[in-house]
Design brief:
By secondary structure, this protein is of the alpha/beta class. It contains 18 helices and 22 strands.
Length: about 475
Amino acid sequence: MIREGLAGGRFKPLTEESIYRIHQTAMRVIEEVGFEVNSQAALELFEVTGGRVDWERRQVRLSEKKAMELIEMAPSEVRLCGQDEKHDILLGGSRVSTGTGGTALYIYHPDTGQRRLASLDDLKRIARLVDHLDNIHLFMLPTYPNELPVEQVDVNRFFAGLDNTTKHVMGGVYTLDGVNQVIQMAEIITGSAETLRQHPLISMVTCSISPLKIDKQYGDLVVTIAQAGIPLVCPAEPLCGATSPVTLTGNLVIQTVDSLMGVMLTQIVNPGTPVIFGSVASSADLKSFKYLAGSVEMGLLNAAGAQMAHFYRLPFYATGGMTDSKVLDAQSGYESALTSLLCALAGANFIHDAAGLMEFALTACYEKFVIDNDILGMVMRAVEGIKVDDDSLAFDLIKEVGPGGNFVTAKHTRDFMRSEHYQPSVSDRYSREEWAAKGSKTTWERAAERVKDILANHNYSLPPAIRHRVLSEITGIVN
């Protein structure tokens, strides 16, 4: 069984002509401007494949023909598997899935209004929480364990995910040794290297640096991960007016080139590597040059990014669902909802950062994961649209009930009431009197009760024999 996701694509901020013009400009950048590559291994690979390399400036230029040959080697669909097959996801086309993201440094507590540094235990608890939130389909490691040295971060973050959720685990990576440890761990859990490639429980994220740069560390990581055949996301984060032109169209050109740099490198290393075209494109606040996570322009850029991914027939990793707010307030709700909705309606395959993040993505909040789960339920209901057939038109029922009647007791109502109308878990739909009688609780207070219930009653861990083997064979895991 595999979760294919609902088909989006109804919202199209770009015309077909605009998509082609952005593509043509991106190809001109690749061919005439080029991009900087600071990984020696990656630079040599680009030269071997026919790239024009300026070794002094470490710049690569590729012809449009060669660039498109490499892009077309990448698969149009990528399968991401969970430990429970009901969580398997097929990314591609205009099918939409959602997930967490990060990597946040802090945890916010709405009861005190304060934040603190995130720990490894936070990551474990969030994995358990997300495992029970149905509208969050994929677990991307959302926080950074501040108490660990960087050499132990990769293996501990991925183990925290794999040991606490049955959903697919995706994460950014920091060291080559960490990547190899994580792959070995996943091979133990799946049973073999071959099984892991057929049913990838993990995927990794390596970012290009906007504008037009592959740094040494990430370039080496791309080469290593592609050689291993592990699914890989190659996102970029151009900011309007800072690391890209201030116009949304100019930003899309930079974002397209920056992500395609990683896509092309994976296919040089290992043709057919499951790679995902990615965007974290957004705006900079030109008064302070801060990164903005909740602007409507971020939603538009990532919706348009979905159209560019469809043009290249590549799976797409979009960014939405965050907020710049420091608290769980109205701004937090409308920014999170709007950016996720725009991405989903455009057919973004995986909307990352769609739950739990706030304060320019610096901070995660347990209660916000639950609130965003409801938001995403509404978003996916919008993606589903309105089905029109004989059952939904209900002519025979209308005829039977007739003028002045009601439909409350009809079997048709019972049959469709749950599937036709999304039922949020923390929204308040009581009268004022009923709401007051239940304690006059705010949204975050109701979410806090659900967090407490899930963490008290919902636990998953790896099978004991497999868990013991992982802890015995993989060094550096803090248990």
